[in-house]
Design brief:
The structure holds two protein chains of two kinds. By secondary structure, chain A is mainly α. In chain A, strands 1-2 form a two-stranded antiparallel sheet. Helices cover 50% and strands 6% of the residues of chain B. Chain B is built from four helices and two strands, in the order ααββαα. The longest helix of chain B has 27 residues. Classes of the chains: A mainly alpha, B mainly alpha.
């Protein structure tokens, strides 16, 4: 075994269940490409590349949450706020695939499990929270930071419980699932708080510097005020 | 506007490279939440081999690509841990941006269809 394992390794969940989730992940990613294309224009494409690269970098930064236990950002919520849910899930998947194939992190057999948990379920949970919270919170750097923080905490815990479901279906060692669920939830509330702080600082910074590049400030505007007139965002480029 | 996006991307990549290249060496080396949960219940020797107990990691198998030159966020052949981790991190950021950004660029929507919200303001300022 190695020292720097950050995702599900091979052999933790049996190969049949791993194969099922590989299919689930592939189907979900196909939907994300199909739906994400509507968002992906000349400006969002390089931004999405940057978001993936940034998530890769920050995933290397394990922070201590308990004695002997660390955690790192998963990135789903951060990606949702900056590039939207569909492209966001693809960003996290890109990171997971590169980590698996190049850095031997996260088993090849377990890749579908890792993508399902972190890129699909984690991002989906983050998206639901972000979309919901931005209906009530102000669309300001501070509002989007609070949104990113809260959504991150929930998203990380939900992703950790998705692992518990997979382990219940195909775990290779007979263990008490309630204990696993509790251990995972406890550690991941703390990891979620860490992730939330990182995500909040990041989105608040981008929202201050380039609000036009924050997907959540542009695209969720319409859902947030369905009755209001479609006021175009102020041209930020003209200010500086 | 295009140029300004370019500068933002460049700045963002620089921050990512610094995080992965420098800050990463100060990251915690404790197992993460998942790994710690997987090891809970087992005892380990100095080489991280399971010596007893019952835990999720018991049936864990090695990564198929464990001998890859970048395995475990290091560069094979570089003994200095700071350099090895840092360079692998910078390389990872570059590869992720190149592959991710490249694929996103290839599948992007070309021409203007229904989503014109930010294009209109963009056109107004750059024209």
């Amino acid at each position: 075994m190695n020292g720097v394992a950050m995702h599900i390794a091979n052999g933790i969940v049996n190969s049949q269940v791993s194969a099922i989730f590989a299919a689930v992940a592939a189907a979900a990613l196909a939907i994300c490409v199909w739906r994400g294309r509507a968002d992906l224009d000349d400006r969002l494409a390089p931004m999405a590349g940057l978001v993936a690269a940034f998530i890769f970098a920050v995933q290397m930064l394990n922070f201590q949450v308990l004695p002997g236990v660390s955690g790192h950002l998963l990135g789903g919520t951060l990606a949702v706020v900056l590039v939207g849910p569909w492209v966001g899930a693809l960003c996290v998947s890109t990171v997971l695939i590169i980590q698996c194939l190049l850095f031997a992190d996260g088993g090849l057999t377990a890749l579908g499990l890792n993508i399902t948990n972190m890129a699909v379920i984690g991002t989906a949970a983050g998206y639901l929270l972000v979309a919901g919270l931005l209906r009530v919170l102000p669309k300001t750097p501070r509002g989007v930071a609070v949104t990113a923080f809260l959504a991150s905490v929930v998203s990380v815990v939900v992703a950790s419980q998705a692992f518990v479901v997979e382990y219940a279906l195909g775990g290779t060692t007979q263990l008490d699932l309630t204990t696993i669920a509790g251990t995972m939830a406890g550690a991941h509330v703390l990891i979620g708080i860490g992730e939330g702080l990182i995500a909040a600082v990041t989105v608040a910074t981008v929202a201050r510097v380039r609000p036009d590049l924050v997907y959540a400030l542009r695209r969720f505007r319409k859902t947030a005020s369905p009755a209001g007139p479609a006021v175009p965002a102020p041209a930020v480029g003209g200010v500086a | 506007m295009k140029k300004r996006l370019g500068w933002f991307i460049a700045g963002g990549l620089l921050v990512a490279a610094l995080l992965a290249g420098v800050v990463s060496s100060f990251a915690s080396s404790s197992p993460d939440g998942l790994d710690a949960a997987a090891r809970k219940g087992c005892t380990f020797d100095a080489d991280d081999n399971i010596t007893g107990g019952t835990c999720m990691a018991q049936q864990e198998r090695a990564h198929q690509l464990k001998d890859s030159p970048l395995a475990d966020y290091g560069i094979k052949g570089i003994d200095n841990e700071f350099l090895s981790t840092g360079l692998s991190g910078v390389l990872g950021v570059a590869v992720t941006f190149a592959i991710g950004g490249g694929v996103f660029w290839l599948v992007r929507r070309r021409g203007g269809d229904e989503h014109t919200d930010d294009r209109t303001t963009e056109g107004a300022t750059s024209a």
